[in-house]
Amino acid sequence: MSDNAKMRFGIIGIGRSAARCKAVQDTPYTELAAICDLNEELLDAVGEDLGCERRFTDYQKMLEMEDLDAVFIATPDNDHCPMSVAALDAGKHVLCEKPMAISMDQVHQMLDAEERSGKQLGINQVLRTNPRMVEAKRMADSGYLGDLFYGEADYVHNISHLIIGGWRGDLEQRHTPFIGGGCHMIDLLRWCMGEVDEVFAYGSHKCLTQEQYPFDDCNISVLKFANGACGKFGATYGCKRPSFRNFMLYGTEATYVAGRDFDEVTVNDHPGEVIKVEIGVKGHPYGPVAEDFAGAILRGERVPICARDVANTIAIAIAGNESIVSGEPVKPERFDF
Hints:
The protein is α/β, with parallel strands linked by helices. The chain is built from ten helices and 14 strands. α8 (183-193) crosses α10 (307-326).
């Protein structure tokens, strides 16, 4: 791979900000070649600001571009599958926003399209590149934490302002707390602790009305990992508090704690042995995901956050939804990667 090699990207779905467009424009190995959105006013404003002349309101027209190498899909959840399949079949690599899909049927459609196209499908599980979580993964893999026996993660975020009157409140989108925002934390638990054999979940519907949101707005699950460890995962959309992503890994030698306002490793239970990890970057760093995705393809490697990997995350989220309905434990489908 030459030092100046770049992949030409198209972005489908600008959303509330142009963060993904800017990341692709500013990241090594990528070039912003085209943008697509149904909002023409936003499309033109972002295009003018970033100097992107190729603008589309029809993503199928964008996919006809012969000089387009890849697309970054950032549309409502139920569009991820048909748009990814269309792009792969058009000979484009795809970086798809999380959640990968909203049903197991969609997961299989996307994996089948990737296989027959010969192109790569990556998923933007962006928190895997957040430095706080990179540190958790490093500590888990290095053995510093010892043998992991329990993991805990929570996606606590009041997004009622996005749900009410927005696409997240539509029944067809199936944007449940487990699938929508919660897939972030399920994915991080898997990434650090391994695959999940069984899910047992409960839900409540207290914060949003049925008309506002047709799903339970709070989901809690207990996880049984294949390696014998256990875990707890929760997601809520109507809480009255600032957004919060709790993440803890309990090992026989140390515990990793990443709360809202601190990042530390607690060794045993002695206050004097708390190690402060100073990590400034928070939030959703899109740039590293795009860079790693494009760099891997240019080097002829598999993309690091591949679809078959993340299919296991979505399978756990969907199993959780099924458990809430059935009142029974559910074994998620498992994919090799």
